[in-house]
């Protein structure tokens, strides 16, 4: 279960063994026992620079 406000995730299609039992964000539990228990609006947008894939060193 992913809680993201975007139409893309880098995890799409990944097959893993095991299952997460808890998600912690900035020291607070935001998901536990397959339920979202965080606060709406707690997430933060982190602006990143665009990557020039042809000139990565």
TrEMBL record:
InterPro entries annotated for this entry?
Answer: Metal-dep_hydrolase_composite
Query: What superkingdom heads the lineage?
Result: Bacteria
Gene Ontology molecular functions: hydrolase activity, acting on carbon-nitrogen (but not peptide) bonds
Reported EC number(s) for this entry are 3.5.2.-
Q: Which UniProt keywords apply?
A: Hydrolase
Question: Which enzyme class, named as a word?
Answer: hydrolase
Looking up SUPFAM superfamilies in the UniProt record yields: Composite domain of metallo-dependent hydrolases
Protein name, per record: Phenylhydantoinase
| Organism this protein belongs to | Clostridium botulinum CFSAN001627
């Amino acid at each position: 279960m992913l809680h993201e406000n975007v139409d893309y995730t880098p995890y799409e299609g990944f097959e893993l063994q095991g299952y997460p039992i808890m998600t912690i964000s900035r020291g607070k539990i935001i998901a536990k026992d397959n339920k979202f228990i965080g606060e709406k609006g707690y997430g933060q947008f982190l602006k990143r620079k665009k990557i020039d894939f042809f000139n990565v060193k």
